[in-house]
Structures are given as structure tokens and as C-alpha cells.
Write a structure and sequence with these properties.
The protein is α/β, with parallel strands linked by helices. The protein has one domain (4-166). Helices cover 35% and strands 15% of the residues. The chain is built from seven helices and four strands; from the N terminus they run βαβαβαβαααα. The two termini are 22 Å apart.
Length: 172
């Protein structure tokens, strides 16, 4: 059975990264990517009403906050749909602590500004979304996919284990 992958990601930077990882690198399963901060915003029924039985939902979220209440409610809601066979699976990808720290761990850089030669951390976010050759930029900085999203969260997020292995394409 072919699955339909639906990603809900923290922000535009994550959206771009997931698209490059899936479509250009072919590291992970390709799918539809939407920005929705599942740590802060509830997943409304209108988003999930039309899901079919072969949908797999992926939640990519930052762990740089101390509140997991909305995230827990979102996961519970989605898990109920798994039990009812409305969707196939819910996959969690916590970013420890955020995308910038994940990229620093995964590339040969000491500061996130070094990835795209940005002047500031804030400018990096804009530069990241505007860059047209992200794959090449990551390769130049020795990007190692086996380091991305591999750090286990701590504190209030310690119970949210990364399930990236369920998405990995085995031929990379």
C-alpha cells in the first residue's frame, strides 16, 4: 500500500529543509509539507477531516519551550484517528532545541550564521528561505544527515522520542 505523507512543521525554514531532504537528497519520504506549529496551535478538524486510511502524519517541532500541553493534545487527537483507522501512523520529529541547533550539529559549522554567511541569526532565517541552492550549501558545509534530528530531547520533551527511522529512504 502506498502511503500519503503529510508533514506539519514548525516554520518556513523547516518546510524548506524537509522539501530538500525529501525531493533533492531523497533521504526521507516525500509528501505534502505545511507550516503549523503543533506545540502552540491545535490541529483543527478541518485539517484532518479528509484524510484517508493511507495517510501518515509527521510532526516536526522545536523543543525550546516548557509547555507541551497543546502538543500532547494534538498527538492524542491524531492517535485517536490511528485507532479508528482514519490515518496509518503519527511520526514525531522533535528538534533539539530548534532547527538552527540541528543544522549546527549536522554541518561543519560553529554558528548558524556560517551556513549561508548570514550577518545575524535573524537574517539567517530569511537567507535560508531565499536560498535557491540549499542542497549545495549543505553539501559545502559537510552536511551529515545521520546527525540531523538524532539528539534525544530532555526536560518536558523527554517523552517525545524521534521516529525519523520510519521516514528514511533506505537507499541513501
Amino acid at each position: 500500500m502506498a502511503f500519503i505523507y503529510q508533514y506539519y512543521v514548525e516554520g518556513e525554514n523547516e518546510k524548506k529543509l524537509v522539501e530538500v531532504l525529501s525531493k533533492e537528497f531523497n533521504f526521507i519520504k516525500a509528501g505534502k509539507v505545511e507550516v503549523l506549529n503543533v506545540v502552540e496551535k491545535p490541529i483543527k478538524n478541518t485539517r484532518i477531516r479528509n484524510f484517508k486510511e493511507n495517510h501518515v502524519i509527521i510532526l516536526v517541532f522545536d523543543t525550546d519551550t516548557n509547555n507541551t500541553k497543546t502538543l500532547e493534545a494534538n498527538i492524542e487527537c491524531l492517535k485517536c484517528l490511528v485507532k479508528s483507522k482514519k490515518i496509518e501512523d503519527v511520526i514525531l520529529i522533535p528538534q533539539v532545541r530548534n532547527i538552527e541547533e540541528e543544522l549546527v550539529r549536522s554541518c561543519n559549522i560553529n554558528n548558524i550564521k556560517d551556513l549561508l554567511k548570514s550577518k545575524s541569526r535573524e537574517e539567517f532565517k530569511t537567507d535560508f528561505n531565499k536560498v535557491t541552492n540549499l542542497k549545495n550549501c549543505l553539501i559545502k558545509k559537510c552536511f551529515d544527515f545521520k546527525k540531523l534530528w538524532r539528539t534525544e530531547p530532555v526536560g518536558v520533551f523527554s517523552g517525545f522520542k524521534c521516529e525519523l527511522s520510519k521516514l528514511e529512504n533506505k537507499n541513501f
